[in-house]
Amino acid sequence: MTQPLVMGAVAYAPKVVTIWEGFKAWFRDQGLEFDFVLYSNYERQVEAQFDGTLHLAWNSPLAWVRAERMARARGLEVAAVAMRDTDQDLSSVLVVRQDGPADRTALVGKRVGFGAIDSPQATLIPLDHLRQAGLVAGRDYTARRFDVLGGKHGDHIGGERDAAQALMAGEIDAAWMIDGNYLAFANEGVLPSGATRILARTGLYDHCNFTVSPGAPSELIGRFIELLLGMSWDDPAVRPLLELEGLRAWRPGRTSGYAALDRAVDDEAFYDAEGKILAADYRY
Amino acid sequence: MPPTIDIDSLGFDAGAHLVVKLALGRVAVGEVLEVRGQGEGWQGPLAAWCRSQGHPVAFEDGGDGRPCARITRGAVQAGRWRGAAATGAIDPGADGAVRAEADARWGLAARGATVEAGSPAFAFRLTRREDVWADSAATLYAEAVAAQWNADTAIDWQAPCDLPDEVEDAVVQVMTYMVENENAALVVPARFLGQLHPHFREVQALLAIQVADEARHIDVFTRRIALKGRQPGLSTAGGQASLKTLVDEPDFSTAQFLLAVLGEGTFVSLLNFLHHHAPDPVTRQIARLAARDEARHVAFGMAHLGQHIALEPALLARLGNAVEARYEHLAGTSGLNEEVFDALILLAAGSSEPAAIAAGYARVQELLQDMARGREARLAKLGFQGESARRLASLHTRNFM
Q1: Of A44, A89, B191, B286, which sits with the fewest C-beta atoms within 10 Å of its C-beta?
Q2: Chain B: nearest CA to A73, how far in angstroms?
Q3: How many angstroms away from the CA of A178 is the closest CA of chain B?
């Protein structure tokens, strides 16, 4: 058998198996031998990108930041080669109750809800947003974390939903969530119509990407990208896979959307410059 | 100037996405819609919604100090419906509305709906129109709906019903036999119902209401058994063997022929007999109501077979063979259970006095002749020639159904 291209992915939910089994079958039908390894957390997955286990990995933005730091420290390179259309230009919103704080300055002394400790969208980028506005957790306001499934980098939306529920229950004064989850929680009725306001919105950032490991076989990677970018929403055989993975089209990878997260990783002391984990209470 | 809408202070936690969606529906793919809004932060959820729907969006200054979103309508929706299947139309009388062959991938969709390519294939076995269809199915269904009756109010369960013990026993035995037969008449359409492609919805509806009819019949026959505190009577191996040949018949048209045209047709005669000769008003009322329902079932069977035979004349020979085969198969069984035959005489006699028995016996003889004449007439109507119709009518199971 031809040597397959081996990809890593994190099993943040049971559907992950369905998704990658579907992709595996599709890639094989296109003549590309492809296999995947599932990890329970992004930390071990990124580490496996440097021990020869994985040719590439489907990485969270935080995993990308770590992979990039680990590569640089080793004098190597990783590359973000593809991402979903829905990974580009995201934002997070800070939601308050209708009678809650009027603006960001009114957050002083308040309780602000965040997602999991390792969530880029509901913790790290929001912490950075407030810090840039002069508000530091523990000094100017109380940060309350809604930690669900550490190591999944916030892929599991449970933490954000718990924060939204705590907001409506009056346990916190504001809650961060990714813009798409604001819509989802409104549809679910977790955020009752008209009961909340959006107090602040982060700058735009990018989410997941396919990160190529140092030394991966370039020919296989090239074929992978070519097939991936050729996947068409109009093709009924492909559409269910794209729908499950939450995209309409694959886009070439870019790294311009990770600056805020990279800064937050330093400011919040999550990883050091070499990608070593610093966050003391991080369990995964 | 691109079309512009103002969602004002309507939030995305209150349905703003729908206002945007409807407005985008009026814009061509690739064209721009401008959206203005009030309040802080509306851009985030709008961008999230556009992203999830595949519409590129950019924000700029609206010129009045308020931000303005420029949404370019994406092609995702159009892409989803590329290669979608057309599935006929609602009105069964319109040209091409009911297709000759229903596609497995149309699945459970309403007939006439547009079905997305890539929908799962359902394993419905009955997918050919000519195998199941009757133009009168919709009319017969409407009649059936209008003729439904409530067993609690349509039957006077308090009516005087004090029969001699042996006559009450006879009624109970006949009712026991009726329940057994109606179980077959329920199970047969119910099994086909699960195999029928929903494209043929008029036939589906008709089979469903037939199943409901039979459930009601089983209920009232059972309540008549229990009226005087009795338990059901006897069930014979021969009777069940006869009914099993109906339940085991895999071909829809053959099953319609054996069950509806021959069996239920014969049952209409039996129910009319009970309506006229049963010794108590409750049994007479039950028989009258059930006979009306059974007549509709026969009408559908006749209508379907008439159309199917016209399209496929060789079916006639197959149906004739099915009667012969069933006759052969049942040759070693006793047919109608003796208890039922005697119970019918006693029931029609109303007492065990010799003179009454003689009258009851004569009525049962008349019933058997009436059944045979009815079968022959229906066979002739379907196209069986004189002698052949007579012969096949005579081969029908002695169990009646």
Answers
A1: A44
A2: 36
A3: 9
Q: Round to whole Å and give the CA distance between A198 and B40.
A: 6
Domain that includes residue A26, residue range: 5-87+208-257
Terminal Cα distance for chain A, rounded: 35
Q: Write down the pLDDT at residue B334.
A: 66
CB of A260 within 8 Å of a chain B CB? The answer is no
The arrangement of strands across the sheet holding B57-61 comes to B4-8, B32-37, B67-72, B57-61
- Scanning B33-92 for CB atoms below 8 A from A yields 39-45, 47-49, 51-52, 54, 74, 76, 79-80, 82-83
- Please identify, among B123, B149, B176, the residue that sits at the C-terminal boundary of a domain: B123
Burial of residue A214, with CB atoms counted within 10 A of its CB: 0-12 exposed, 13-18 middle, 19 or more buried: middle
Measuring CA to CA, how many Å separate B151 from each of B217, B224, B286, B373? 9, 11, 9, 31
Sheet holding A92-97, edge to edge: A142-145, A111-114, A174-178, A92-97, A196-201
CA distance A111 to A122: 15
Q: Are strands A56-59 and A209-212 parallel, antiparallel or unpaired?
A: antiparallel
Residue A107: name the closest of A159, A132, A143 by CA.
A143
pLDDT tens, residue by residue, A72-123: 999 999 999 999 999 999 999 999 999 999 999 999 999 999 999 999 999 9
Q: Are residues A83 and A97 in the same domain?
A: no
Name every chain A residue with its beta carbon within 8 A of the beta carbon of B12: 182-183, 186
Residue A225 lies in a domain: yes
Tell me the residue range of the domain where B98 lies. Answer: 85-123
| Amino acid letter, A7 | M
Q: Give yes or no: residues B303 and B318 share one domain.
A: yes
B288-346 tens-digit pLDDT = 999 999 999 999 999 999 999 999 999 999 999 999 988 888 877 766 678 889 999 99
| Contact list, A206 vs chain B (CB under 8 Å) | none
**pTM of structure:** 0.82
Where a domain ends, among B94, B123, B152? B123
3-state SS class at B143 = helix
CB atoms within 10 A of CB A1: 4
Q: Is A195 on the interface with B (CB under 8 A)?
A: yes
Number of domains in chain A: 2
> Does the residue A266 lie in any domain?
no
B205/B269 same-domain check: yes
Q: Do B44 and A198 touch (CB under 8 A)?
A: yes
Instruction: Find chain B residues with C-beta within 8 A of A89's C-beta.
Output: 47, 51
CB contact under 8 A, B40 and A200: yes
Whether residues A80 and A121 fall in one domain: no
Residues 6 or more apart whose CB falls under 8 angstroms from that of A71 comprise A50, A77, A78, A214
Q: Are residues B218 and B333 in the same domain?
A: yes
Nearest-10 Cα torsion for A258, A259, A264, A267: 150
